[in-house]
Model the fold of this input.
Amino acid sequence: MHPRPLSGLRVLDLTRVLAGPYCTLLLADLGAEVVKVEQPVTGDDARAFGPFLQTGQSAYFASINRGKKSIALNLKDSADRETFLSLVNQADVLVENFRAGTMHKLDLSAESLCQRNPRLIYAALSGFGHAGSHTDRAAYDVVVQALSGLMSITGSSADEPVRVGTSISDILTGIFGAVAIVSAVHGRTESGQGTVIDLAMLDCTVAALENAISRFATAGVAPEPLGTRHPSITPFQAFPTADAPIVIAAGNDTLWAALCDCLDRGDLADDSRFSSNGDRTTHHAALETELTTTLATRPADDWLERLADAGVPAAPIRSIDQVVADPHLASRGMWHTMDDGQGGSLLTPGSPFRMNDTPPPLSASIPGLDEHHQEIIAEWLATDSS
Amino acid sequence: MHPRPLSGLRVLDLTRVLAGPYCTLLLADLGAEVVKVEQPVTGDDARAFGPFLQTGQSAYFASINRGKKSIALNLKDSADRETFLSLVNQADVLVENFRAGTMHKLDLSAESLCQRNPRLIYAALSGFGHAGSHTDRAAYDVVVQALSGLMSITGSSADEPVRVGTSISDILTGIFGAVAIVSAVHGRTESGQGTVIDLAMLDCTVAALENAISRFATAGVAPEPLGTRHPSITPFQAFPTADAPIVIAAGNDTLWAALCDCLDRGDLADDSRFSSNGDRTTHHAALETELTTTLATRPADDWLERLADAGVPAAPIRSIDQVVADPHLASRGMWHTMDDGQGGSLLTPGSPFRMNDTPPPLSASIPGLDEHHQEIIAEWLATDSS
Done:
């Protein structure tokens, strides 16, 4: 069965919208008890984000808040503040993704909360971080994609910038946040001490730029967008066929030889311009022309079958409906149906954390605003006399 | 100071290329002792990937293997196998990113290694996972970007697919892998039991698709690529100006009003087509035309200054050289210089794991193939009599 490795961990979750809730979603999926502290009346901003279910509930919210509990507290109200501070005493982890400075203005700084609970892991996820020269800016995903350089290397040409089709800067920050939090929790087992974590969306996106930085550092020239092509592996890109485009990734000389064989293009295998991966990358434009000419002679499915038989990595460019229909993903348990509480349902991605040959047990219910108020008070504060 | 929360953790790292090495890079940055087990003579395939330093070392390899130790072992040689199995006895974590089935063929299955060391966390990162209906395919990042649907929602039009400019499927899998591993290590503190982790690049990329799945699930129509635009927040995209494009993210009605004011376009604020975010999203094409007309009248820097003063999130689309020159990233300690061992250096991204107001201490040396053979044997096997 799936171990719930974070079982027993209490997470006080002040996050809203995407980066923070995605982080605590991962913690909840792994067994932590995540308590969303939401502002009264409206709750997490994402409750108002479309698309919507027929019940009026946000599908956006539903897909990233499964398995969490909700309590509404007004952090500017003195009674609610007392409740909140009592919950802080009982928490292992506090996560927030306010703009830098907000918690300080609420007189709830990391320093003061960690003084109250020295074992607390306080994790702040923000656009630009809490420390540094220029933190007081608002960030949204597209701002960070633009500032990080990611947008400058994504697209078909430098004239037409492209945003990654998912809010990848938020998502990356959420996952990096989970790594940092769980690591700090583990470190506390030895040290007994909490940790203040300060993660910035900009830092997290830069850390994911991979070889773009080393290419700039070695060549001194800023990398440009390459469409579907890899900067240093060739062929590794999309090609048109007689009908739909496919991607082909011949990542080494053996796969290159197999590809030439599959295309019945022994002449390319013998062509000195294309001998090594370095040669092929140097002459990528000529190679693309040759391969495109041949691939245009047959439909995608025909090529994909031949390439699969030859063991050459290749794939169709699947649309979301095709992805949802993939039997392999279903066999992995990668789809999870949420229950809207009124007889309807919503398909969402499941969790990738497969352990001991089992996908994680996931909750199907969407937490209502303040739904677990009494339960949380009863369970967390029963033994707290403060 | 920065706590090293994974200090004392022994990681046996069989990974090559990107997804696996990125995962163990995060563990090393957080204090784990990561021992790369490499094939003799050639080592990690990525040692042969460009760009290269003047020493001939791979900058690609250098940027994702800092702080690790290297031991060369031929897992098909009986003496080396014995050494390897003795190291398994001492390891907390084993990570591999071979194609599913490879470790089994080497007679080193997860089952047999966990039988040998029941406290072992065995993490397999692969393209399609070890369990499921169709795992025996080779994966490269571009194949997973295509199969996951990510490519279908990234780009300017459905006719021209675009790959995210970094190997994001590899990177996501590496970070998700670190979450799973550290969680399992923490869970072991209570349970005493190891865990077999089976992470698939395809699953990890699908889990990062965010609202693309809920949009399909609620509307029944597969989402299309939107250039730089957000599907449900408007305006939230890039616009041309008199010189360079900029991104603007007016994520709520307050910011929308501030934007109209900043552009001296009170008429748009009063226009009923653009009253709410939902209205603006419905009429995004008309809105884009209006905003583009106004933004074309001044250069980017002029607009960015005005927008910053008004508190409207906006940014230039920075190239990699501009990102590297950012003083804020420098003030965060987000750049790390690797030492090539011969007087030269290489700029790489640092770690985003800032803790207790300090970036992690990072190694500057590039592990040579088999460099730490004797050290590892001496330290790990000193107390092992098996």
Chain B has a mean pLDDT of 96.
